[in-house]
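User: quick one, sequence for these tokens?
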């Protein structure tokens, strides 16, 4: 009745009035998402399939629909009106606004988010980098510019174009750092950007993205400077920053 031409779309005003006048009780969380669906659509139409996916809690992989519609002018006060939230739920809400551009997907993510599996990849990588740095710092008694120490360059983790036959070095150099400044900068960005991305997109996609950035760094050095050793996880950090943007 609402779509006589069978286009798969109905007007936003019609949809909004239907939501508010529906005779059956709706779950408050899903009612909020339906309202967000109407408010977030600047084309004046609501897609039937998008409505079905929302109600059935089926969303496209990595919120492709939200990313594709990232230029929408959306109200920011819908999910932000939630009060009485604990620390973790406030953090989840922050992640939703930081990563997802569509209000409807923010609400869906907020209500559907589960703590399992946790974002362990970026935390594990950062912790390993800190442990490796402390071990080499204590062993060499040197906490800055460690690459100038001859014993440091003998590490099986450091990448150098002259050692490119040892394939593992293309990735393991990400655990080594020059000093506290480089380690601190990379660790901070990995936790601030990588953890929210991993919470939304999952461990597999973010781990592939990070490792691809690390690999791109060692491959680039291999063809640009055959004399330079390479350490640090900056390649992965740059990949995370680019993905976030």
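Assistant:
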């Amino acid at each position: 009745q609402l779509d006589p031409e069978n286009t798969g779309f109905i007007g936003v005003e019609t949809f909004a009035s239907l939501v508010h006048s529906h005779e059956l009780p709706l779950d408050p969380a899903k009612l909020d998402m339906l309202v967000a669906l109407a408010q977030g659509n600047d084309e004046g139409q609501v897609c039937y399939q998008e409505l079905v996916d929302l109600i059935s809690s089926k969303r496209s992989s990595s919120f492709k629909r939200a990313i594709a519609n990232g230029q929408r002018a959306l109200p920011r006060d819908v999910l932000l009106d939630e009060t009485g939230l604990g620390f973790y739920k406030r953090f989840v809400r922050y992640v939703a606004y930081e990563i997802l551009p569509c209000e409807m997907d923010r609400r869906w993510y907020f209500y559907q988010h589960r703590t399992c599996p946790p974002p362990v990849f970026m935390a594990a990588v950062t912790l390993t980098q800190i442990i490796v740095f402390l071990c080499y710092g204590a062993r060499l008694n040197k906490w800055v510019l460690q690459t100038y120490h001859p014993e440091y360059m003998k590490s099986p983790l450091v990448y150098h174009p002259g050692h490119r036959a040892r394939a593992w070095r293309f990735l393991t150099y990400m655990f080594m750092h020059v000093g506290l400044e480089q380690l601190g900068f990379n660790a901070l960005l990995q936790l601030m950007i990588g953890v929210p991305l991993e919470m939304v997109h999952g461990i597999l996609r973010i781990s592939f993205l990070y490792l691809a950035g690390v690999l791109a760094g060692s491959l680039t050095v291999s063809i640009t400077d055959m004399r330079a050793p390479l350490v640090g996880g900056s390649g992965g950090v740059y990949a995370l920053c680019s993905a976030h943007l």
